[in-house]
Design brief:
The chain is α+β, with helices and mostly antiparallel strands. It is built from nine helices and 17 strands. The strands form six sheets. Strands 1, 2, 3, 5, 6, 9 and 10 form a seven-stranded antiparallel β-sheet that branches. The chain has a two-stranded antiparallel ribbon with strand order 4-11. The radius of gyration is 26 Å and the shape is globular. InterPro entries: Nucleoid_associated_NdpA (IPR007358).
């Protein structure tokens, strides 16, 4: 994880990157900004860094090799020669402008920031920050005029809402640096330009990655195999979802044999799970680890994708968080309707 308690903002330059597709301009500043006001520096640090609050790291990549990734190369040149900071800011801004070629991409201010004193997984290193502000908020302004107070409004940047950000830590260069990102744009196809087209990143294969990958596979197994088509009741599907996510929440280390023993239990289901794991690895071109330390951040991120709701026609939604043994399914021939019987001790 990273620690920003002793971080310093050393240098900053601001450009404006428009939408190339809409023939908006790329406006480059002539020089860096000198920040003498400590309050402004503190506000900028809060704006740039607060949104980076989970341990999800990436590496730069490129199909033709790392040296063909533009941002990786510009960052490397800066880390090797700090005097190239302004030149790299224009290089990266031009590259971002070239990738802003979809009509839905918003133009905005582009910031390149040099940091020192970062602590990442216990290692002290420098970092290069790339940020973009796309949205403006309206702020109410109260000011005194003569003996009265007047009201006005101004458009500006909300320092609690960073739209897009990227921190490149000067470590693991040979693997593509250790990188983390923020992208508050709606996660649709048009929004992928920041992570994929502009930065070209892949997830770093660490505990966060392994945890997320395994939970994603569990979700796929339930959706593709342990499902209605194979005559698995919805309540049983939800039960397996609950047991899977709870296993990850309760343990510090993941062991696949123990997972099968405590969560999957039935041998025939375990065999189907093994077959699906092989299919998943081949389909995704990835390896699913059997032993790793569990990342709490990854569990929290994936938990929202595990649905706990049993929907019965349009009449009832049953939220299942407990054990499957407290639910029984049956069929009422007289009514020609299925039913669920719920067992509980207390009504709150």
């Amino acid at each position: 994880m990273f620690n920003f308690e002793e971080i310093n903002l050393d240098r900053i330059v601001v450009h404006n990157v428009g939408n190339k597709h809409l023939e908006e301009d790329l406006k480059l500043s002539k020089s860096e900004i000198d920040i003498d006001d400590d309050d402004v520096r503190d506000v900028l640090l809060k704006y740039f860094l607060t949104a980076f609050n989970k341990e999800e790291f990436y590496h730069f990549q490129n199909e033709a090799g790392l040296n063909m990734n533009e941002v990786y190369c510009y960052a490397s040149e800066f880390f090797e020669n700090n005097e190239s900071f302004y030149d790299q800011s224009t290089n990266i801004a031009v590259h971002l402008y070239e990738k802003s070629n979809h009509p839905n991409i918003k133009g905005g201010e582009f910031y390149l920031v040099a940091f020192s004193g970062c602590v990442v997984d216990g290692e002290v290193c420098n970092a290069l920050g790339i940020f973009k502000s796309e949205n403006k908020d309206t702020f109410l302004k109260v000011y005194q005029k003569n003996e009265n107070f007047e009201l006005g409004c101004e458009n500006g940047i909300n320092i609690k809402k960073l739209d897009k950000g990227c921190l490149i830590f000067n470590t693991e260069k040979e693997k593509g640096y250790k990188v983390c990102i923020v992208d508050k744009t709606n996660p649709n196809k048009d929004a992928l330009y920041w992570k994929e087209d502009f930065l070209d990143l892949k997830l770093r294969e660490d505990n966060f990655y392994h945890t997320q990958n395994y939970l994603d596979m569990c979700k796929g197994f339930i959706g593709d195999v342990y499902n209605d088509e194979n005559e698995v009741a919805k309540a049983d599907q939800i039960d397996l979802m609950n047991k899977s996510i709870n296993f990850f929440k309760d343990k510090k280390e993941f062991n696949e044999d123990l997972f099968k023993q405590e969560v999957i239990e039935e041998p025939e289901v375990a065999n189907a799970f093994d077959e699906y794991k092989e299919y998943y690895q081949n389909e995704r071109g990835t390896s699913v680890e059997s032993d790793f330390d569990i990342s709490n951040d990854a569990v929290k991120g994936e938990q929202r994708h595990f649905k706990h709701v049993l929907k019965l026609d349009k009449n009832f939604h049953v939220y299942i968080h407990g054990q499957r043994k407290f639910i029984e399914k049956g069929y009422d021939a007289a009514r020609d309707l299925s039913y669920y019987k719920l067992f509980f001790r207390e009504e709150n």
